[in-house]
Amino acid sequence: MNSQHVVVIGAGAIGTASAWYLSKAGWSVTLIDKDRQGKGATSGNCGLFSPSHTLPLAAPGAMKETLHALFHANSPLSIRPRIDFRLWAWMLRFARRCNEKDMLSAAPGRDALIRSSSELFAELREQEGLTCEWRDDGCLMVYKEQGALDAHSKKARWLEERFGIRAKRLDREELEAFEPALLPGKTAGAGFYEGDGHMRPDALLDGWRELLVRRGVKILEGWEARGFVSDGPRATSLRTNKGEITADAFVLATGAWTPQLEKQIGVSIPIQPGKGYSLTMPRPALTPLRPLIFEQDKVVVTPFESGYRLGSTMEFAGYDSKIRPARLALLEKAARYYLRDPLATPVQEEWYGWRPMTYDGIPILDRSPRLHNLMIAAGHTMLGLTMAPATGKLVAELLSDVEPHLDLSAYSLSRF
Fold first, then answer.
1. C-alpha triplet 281, 311, 205: angle, nearest 5°
2. 46 and 30 in contact (C-beta within 8 Å)?
3. What's the Cα-to-Cα distance from 126 to each of 187, 211, 354, rounded to whole Å?
4. What DSSP state is assigned to residue 27?
């Protein structure tokens, strides 16, 4: 067993999972966050576990949607006009990957993390008693237009033929019978992914926190990472707003904030913050039976056991920390269009978080080229919750010099 000390920076889903598996591997673990645990991109997200999202966003046709967003302020995808050379360089690289070949080349790395995480989540629930309102009810990708539904069928064929991920196509009448919460006549149909699941993210973090505390993990909230003190190619301590923390190893799981430490890391980190929003409220009288993704509106509806959440959209606005009412209004507008009973009162939380978006849709899981005892685990795009357990286990394996349970080549920094 390892008796060394590791500091995990960032207490969202990825950092929490890393702390858990490092503790299980025998490390003494300190988990820090500049805010409260999970506030950055985890606690208010829609809680989907999504094998259906094995294919990345950089796909054929995605650039048409991106160009549309440039000229429509209230598009589900919003790009704030500004001079930002890093953003436009990122967009150019994203555009170059919007083809079938690159899309399919990115998918195996995503698929491996999702499959491993599915097994690990089951172990956490069954063996560790982790509670998170988990449900295996599947997910409906709903389309209002026939052409969009037909295009989805092509994507569904790719997923089934290459990864064994099945979607049942439901045309309008079948869909309305299958999901009574939908208004009649508003959709062309949907793809039903029965292998998808969902959980309540804040409940997940609360439950995981209890398990971490029982294992002796030290959790420090309000501690902001400012940089590293190093001795040659090794970091010896972390500088924070509350002083230095010494350790034998470090894990950087700071999501969309990771590029702000890239000078210390020793490599450029091509992550852009993709801002998402959510509204949380009680369950309406007629609540959907399972999560719904209104694909053409980029809005998700998640029915938790203890509540109800509307979320998603994507806004590239840098690190703007304002909640924009117009973006929240898009969530309500989509719910009213599709659902018989779209909203409930009171709204318990208006939330935003930054997704760590890589242009190829593949996360980064690698050692810093400058500080060899610093692991980087970031860039999980919109799938941090879905990929968290496998990522955390890989972090622990790599720092413990154990043969990793997955091939790591897809997640290397060298690809940039």
1. 75
2. no
3. 38, 13, 31
4. -
Domain spans of the chain, in order of start: 5-415
pLDDT at 14: 98
Q: pLDDT tens digits, residue range 57-96?
A: 999 888 877 776 666 667 788 888 888 899 999 999 999 9
Mean pLDDT of the chain: 94
- Residue bearing tokens 């318990």: 348
**Does pLDDT of 1 surpass 60?**
no
Of 238, 202, 161, the C-alpha closest to 36 is 202
Provide the token pair at 31: 């988990």
- CATH code given to domain 5-415: 3.50.50.60
Contact predicate 46/262, CB 8 Å: no
226's tokens: 């400012």
Three-state secondary structure call for residue 260: helix
Predicted TM-score of the model (pTM) = 0.96
Rg (CA), the chain: 21
Q: Decide if 223 contacts 214 (C-beta within 8 A).
A: no
Calpha distance 34→338 (Å, rounded): 38
Element (H, E) at 21: helix 13-24
